[in-house]
Amino acid sequence: MAASSLISDSKEWRALQDHVGAIKQTQLRELLEDDARTEAMVREAGGVYLDFSRQNATPDTLKLLLELAGAAGVGPKIQAMFGGAHINSTEGRAVLHTALRAPRGAVVEDGGANVVPEVWAVLDQIKAFTERVRGGEWVGVTGKRLTSVVSVGIGGSALGPLFVHTALSTEPEAMAQAAGRQLSFLANVDPVDAVRALRGLDPEATLVVIVSKTFTTAETMLNARTVRAWLTERLGQAAVAKHMVAVSTNLKAVEAFGIDPANAFGFWDWVGGRFSVSSAVGMVPLSLHYSFPVMERFLQGMHAMDDHFRTAPLQDNLPALLGLLNIDFGEPGTNGQHSFYQLIHQGRTIPAEFIAVVRSQQDVYLGGEKVSSHEELMCNFFAQPDALACGKDSGTLRAEGVPEHLVPHKTFTGNRPSLSILLPELNAYTLGQLLSMYEHRVATSGFVWGINSFDQWGVELGKVLANKVRSKVQEARSAGRQVSKADGFNASTVRLLNRFLEAKTQ
Ligand code: F6P
């Protein structure tokens, strides 16, 4: 297929479209009776077990999907990504977040230069700094140990680290390393969030990490100023040097903000914001909290999955298969079952995904007896996908004596697709595998559909519009007038803005 043509014009796409009719004739409850099929729809890599037999798919579908991947050039595109080609074409950048977790001796080139030594220079800097803070060698201005960390950042500069923090917060080794320490995140620019993030913290014992790739994001910079004021009003100007560090690609802006660039941890424009969790963005706050060795295992898990993605044939490649079967829907534990599963059962088909671990991070004991919470959770992990796939028919309900008026309400057509992913346990390493698998899955889907998964012009538009609102509101305020359509807003926005501005001045 020519590089510029649409995948939907290819014969492989059309073959898949033709196949849809045959798939529509199938029922998952019957497909699940076919042992050969279910066996053909299971893969494992590095202990990550993926069962996609509850997809509305057969081995023929898989064959067609793999042919589509071939037509879309997924294999060569994967190699191009790892090889440092500028596949983020709309920003003219390489996509090398995989280099962030490459082993020290690896060679990954951007424009002919090996980036791995600079990656490890920053990792060494993070290790040294976080060990000094955790060991009490780096203390606050009043000599107190810095046991609380507030990470200020938004979007990719917050969500990945927050996810990892949540996942590791009950893992025994990570927990032991975090004993006596606190980590919180401040992302949203709502004043309420600043109050919540700082509530109960002792400024003398708090280290603030400002995380911003660009160091220009309006919300983050405002929150950074708020937190800086919170520190300096209590501890004086000298607090900035001891209580504030930064993570950014823009070291000039870090310095202009007042943070010594020596206390900044860099990364590179070949790391997209959404793919930055394994850069200093995640590594600084999380190593402060959980220790560098724990977080190094996270990087090793990611690297293991990177290697699998780079080397495994597509038919056995977990992220690539997930990318071809791309679906996403989620909620922890059985929460989903008690909230939106009714919608999945009886509303429009919503493909779902179940992720579980063989061994729980924690056991709960009552009166010396181990409570079977994990078994309970796992029963649901096995039952819910079948409930969605197989449903319940009216004949069975009538045979059970269900009153006729309730039969339509208790009938579930089934045939709702899902994926099941089973990990041995959830620790820093397996979490790394999981996150890397999802990163590469997104890349694969983009490779097939011809979409650049790495640029962010859409979110840039929102940023530009927010800037426009800010400057027009300031202009109107200082001129003592209302905002009008002449300011470039539509009638609805003009009304909303003026209502807000008037109410503010009352
Ligand atoms: O608006 C999207 C985005 O640019 C993300 O890519 C990024 O993670 C987030 O905003 C925050 O940007 P920054 O890290 O530059 O503050």
How would you portray this structure in words?
Strand 8 (244-248), helix 12 (251-257) and strand 9 form a beta-alpha-beta unit. The chain is globular. The termini are far apart. The protein is of the alpha/beta class. The chain has helices spanning 11-24, 28-31, 35-40, 59-72, 74-82, 116-135, 159-168, 172-177, 191-198, 218-235, 239-243, 251-257, 280-290, 292-311, 318-324, 341-346, 373-390, 394-399, 407-410, 428-449, 457-478, 491-505; strands at 42-45, 48-51, 109-110, 113-114, 148-152, 182-186, 206-211, 244-248, 264-266, 352-359, 365-366, 369-370, 418-425. The protein is built from 22 helices and 13 strands. The protein has three domains: 25-82 and 307-449, Glucose-6-phosphate isomerase like protein, domain 1 (Rossmann fold, 3-Layer(aba) Sandwich), CATH 3.40.50.10490; 108-290, Rossmann fold (3-Layer(aba) Sandwich), CATH 3.40.50; 458-503. The chain binds 6-O-phosphono-beta-D-fructofuranose (F6P).
What are the main properties of this structure?
single chain; 506 residues; alpha/beta; Rossmann fold; 5-stranded parallel beta sheet; 4-stranded mixed beta sheet; 22 helices; 50% helix; globular
Gist?
The chain has 506 residues and is α/β, with parallel strands linked by helices. It has 22 helices and 13 strands. The chain has three domains: 25-82 and 307-449, Rossmann fold, CATH 3.40.50.10490; 108-290, Rossmann fold; 458-503.
The outline comes out as globular
Q: Could you give a short account of the major beta sheet?
A: 5 strands, parallel
Beta strand %: 5-15%
Work out the radius of gyration. 26 Å
**Heterogens:** 6-O-phosphono-beta-D-fructofuranose
Mean of residue pLDDT?
A: 93
Number of domains: 3
Please give the share of residues in helix. Answer: 40-55%
CATH homologous superfamily (4th level) name of the largest domain? Glucose-6-phosphate isomerase like protein, domain 1
Question: How many strand units?
Answer: 13
Secondary-structure-based class equals: alpha/beta
CATH hierarchy class name of the largest domain: Alpha Beta
Order of adjacent strands in the largest pleated sheet: 6-5-7-8-9
CATH topology of the largest domain: Rossmann fold
Distance N terminus to C terminus? 64 Å
Q: In CATH terms, what is the architecture of the largest domain? A: 3-Layer(aba) Sandwich
* Total helical segments: 22
Low-confidence stretches: none
Enzyme class: isomerase
Protein name: Glucose-6-phosphate isomerase
Pfam family, one: PGI
EC number: 5.3.1.9
